[in-house]
Amino acid sequence: MAKNGLGTTRPNPMVGCVVVCDGVIVGEGYTSAYGGNHAEVNAINAVVDKSLLVNSTLYVSLEPCNHYGKTPPCSDLIVKNKVPRVVIGCVDPFDKVAGKGIEKLKKNGCEVVVGVLEEECIALNKRFFTFHTKMRPYIVLKWAETKDGFVSPVPHLNSHPKKEKASPVWISNVYSRQLVHKMRMEEQAILVGTTTVVADNPKLNVRDWQGENPIRLVLDTTLRISKKSYVLDKSVKTIVFTEKKEKDEKNLKYKKIDFSRNIAQQICAILYTLEIQSVFIEGGTQTLQTFIDANLWDEARIFVGDLSFTKGLKAPKIKGEEIYKQFLLSDTLKIIKNTHC
């Protein structure tokens, strides 16, 4: 149930909650879109006969909050309704909660069990946990490559500035491309380098799926991207990382970084201050490899198409544990986890 909140609850975590009385589910809920009710509130509100709560167990995937944010503390609501037993998947790493919700429940006579399906509950909120424990966003790399390991049959048009722009060569099929739009919706921001923007003029929005557009992040050292590019059209909140000074506009912000130093590290530090919990990095190869070399990535999603180029631009080099494989007709999606970050 918690997964129903994917892409809508941030910066809050996705949480699922079930109220059980005498072995029967009497209420259930998950965290509403940001600013709305938390899972515990929705689950308790769903219980038609509130007298059942004093004999119920509340199961929740993450520790109930103990502070005022957009909504009152969930721990107060549980205590108020005299729920005698609470089973919690994992402790909340957010410093305003971090055990305080559990402590309040216990002090008010509630029996609390913590750590049930703990690994699964932490994995569910991998973005939230990474942000609060590693002080950086959760980073997802994505690219499409051929069976022989190329991402493009020829170098980008930057290498041949006088030549006309060639038509794009699709490595992945339409189903894979639709899935990528779903993936974009699930992350808070999307990042690309200058070459990708100049060569492809991407919109970097969600079109083939329903959901909110991610914040666009663009690397542009000397601000050479055309103002007519989609990424600078101000239709979606956009941040440009550059070494130049430029005036901010509505939906278009500029952040100065030193491109002679660790680029990935500087970007992660800035995104942390902006409370951006996850980033989907779509390219190009140099940008992807920059984050790989800095060991600042959590998973890579690689679409392998059913074709070969024999020569061209090589795919990024990456090492990790393959944790998932899916076949999308002629394509194969591999998900690689970084086990050393």
Kindly describe this structure:
This protein has 9 helices and 16 strands. A 9-stranded mixed beta sheet has the order 11-10-9-8-12-6-13-16-15, sandwiched between helices. It has a 5-stranded mixed beta sheet with strand order 2-1-3-4-5. Strands 7-14 form a two-stranded antiparallel sheet.
List keywords for this structure.
single chain, 5-stranded mixed beta sheet, 9 helices, alpha/beta, 341 residues, 9-stranded mixed beta sheet
Q: Specify the biggest β-sheet.
A: 9 strands, mixed
CA distance, first residue to last residue: 29 Å
Cα radius of gyration in angstroms: 23 Å
Q: Shape from CA axes?
A: elongated
Poorly predicted parts: 157-164
Quaternary state of this entry equals single chain
Number of distinct helices? 9
Strand elements, count = 16
- In round numbers, the mean pLDDT is 93
Structural class: alpha/beta
Query: Residue share in helices?
Result: 10-25%
How are the strands ordered across the major sheet?
Answer: 11-10-9-8-12-6-13-16-15
Summarize this entry quickly:
23% of the residues lie in helices and 26% in strands. With 341 residues, it is of the alpha/beta class.
List the helices and strands and how they pair.
Blueprint: E1 16-21, E2 24-30, H1 39-45, E3 56-62, H2 74-80, E4 85-90, H3 100-107, E5 111-114, H4 118-124, H5 126-134, E6 138-145, E7 150-152, H6 174-186, E8 189-192, H7 194-200, E9 215-219, E10 238-242, E11 252-256, H8 263-273, E12 278-283, H9 285-293, E13 299-304, E14 313-314, E15 321-328, E16 331-337
Parallel strand pairs: 3-4, 4-5, 6-12, 6-13, 8-9, 8-12, 9-10, 10-11
Antiparallel strand pairs: 1-2, 1-3, 7-14, 13-16, 15-16
